[in-house]
Structure formats: structure tokens, C-alpha cells
Amino acid sequence: MGESEKKPSYCNSWDHVRTIRKKVVANELKTWGPSIDMEQTWRMIQGYQVTITDVDGPASMLHSDYFRSDECIAKTPLEALTVYLDRGHYPPPEVLIALHHCFLMYFKFAGHYELDEMFFDAPRKQRIGNYAAQSDKDDSFLMFDYLVSLGASRANTEGFKRKSQTELAEVFLQQKQGDFDTDPESFVRDYRRWKQNRKADK
């Protein structure tokens, strides 16, 4: 796929990160200022961040490839950045460079694309909102889907009375989400539509 055919969000992809990584590791990355061996600099920093403390146990050594396990860290480089920072780690230089490219492209297109499209290939959807709103709804429906499956399983194996999805939704929204405004029946209709769309996407 040529550069002109790539989606705007290509810069926030692991394929783009891996392309940059080859240049970083080989010290072939061109910068505006004096040539800096970013790989060597990052390796020095990495030497101080090779331990991670487990909440339920002692500190353990991180494998050197952990910081460059790409999709195992997060779905996109931008989301990986939050994972690194939440854990107090400096991300590899290629991740920062890829995100830098995203912003450069965003300004280059001068408003033609929204940030959601530049980073996630996710234009704003009517009645749903931007990528953050879509992700929040996905998280809610995933959690509710688990409760539906759990309720069905317990009804079959332990003889519990099976609650309707509307009853489950009311409990879920109010007790788990602290949401007393959303209509449970409306939530269930959206949940079923979401689940149907997930099946169609597979």
C-alpha cells in the first residue's frame, strides 16, 4: 500500500511503529538537529526501569522485549503511551515518534480530519459520539454481556431464577454504573444492537 493510499490513522499503528523502530535501532533516523543515537539513550533509561512491583508480591524482572511487545501492550501506540506512563515507564522512542507523526499529519491536513480519525480511523458517529464515547459504551456493554452470560450460566448449573435482561440492566446501571437516568429497556435495545454488530464484524 502506497503512502497516498494509507488511512490517516496509519501513523498511530504498530506497522508504522515497527517501520520507525528499524531506523531507530540502526541509528538511521534523520532529525533536524545534531544526530542523536536515540536507541542508545533509551537503552540507558531502560536499564533503570526493568523492575515492576506486583501489588500482591515482590518486584520481578521485566523481560527486555516487554517494552517492544507492541499489540501485547495495547491496541494502538497512543493507548500504549498511557500504559507506559501509568506504570512509570519511558516508552520506546519509536512510539513517541509515531505519535509525533500523527500530530504533524493532523496539522498538515489543516482541519480536514478530526483527531479521532487521525488517531483511530474513527469518525464521529451520529448518536454515539467520538472515539472516547464509543469506547465507553463498548466497555459498558462488554461488562453487561458478561453479567448476562454469568446469569444464564448460574441459572443452568445452580438452579437460580434467571432474571430478564431488563431486570439485569436496571441493577447494572444503578448499582454498577451509578446511572439512574438511563432507561433499562433502552439500554438493552442498544446492547442487543451492539452485540449484533459485533457478530457482523467477525
Task: List the defining traits of the structure above.
202 residues, mainly alpha, 8 helices, 54% helix
Mean pLDDT: 76
The helix tally amounts to 8
Note the overall shape.
elongated
Q: Summarize the amount of helix as a percent range.
A: 40-55%
Order of strands, main sheet, comes to 1-2
Number of strands: 2
Instruction: Tell me the span between the first and last alpha carbons.
Output: 24 Å
Computed CA radius of gyration, to the nearest angstrom: 22 Å
Sheet with the most strands, sense and barrel status: 2 strands, antiparallel
SSE order:
HHEEHHHHHH
Instruction: Estimate what percentage of residues fall within beta strands.
Output: under 5%
Low-confidence stretches: 53-61
SS-derived structural category: mainly alpha
Can you describe what's shown?
Helix content is 54%, strand content 3%. With 202 residues, the protein is an all-alpha fold. Strands 1-2 form a two-stranded antiparallel ribbon. Helix 1 (14-25) crosses helix 4 (93-108) and helix 7 (165-176) packs across helix 8 (184-201). The radius of gyration is 22 Å and the shape is elongated. Mean pLDDT is 76; it is low at 53-61.
Topology:
Blueprint: H1 14-25, H2 38-46, E1 51-53, E2 59-61, H3 77-86, H4 93-108, H5 115-120, H6 131-157, H7 165-176, H8 184-201
Antiparallel strand pairs: 1-2
Short structural summary:
With 202 residues, the chain is an all-alpha fold.
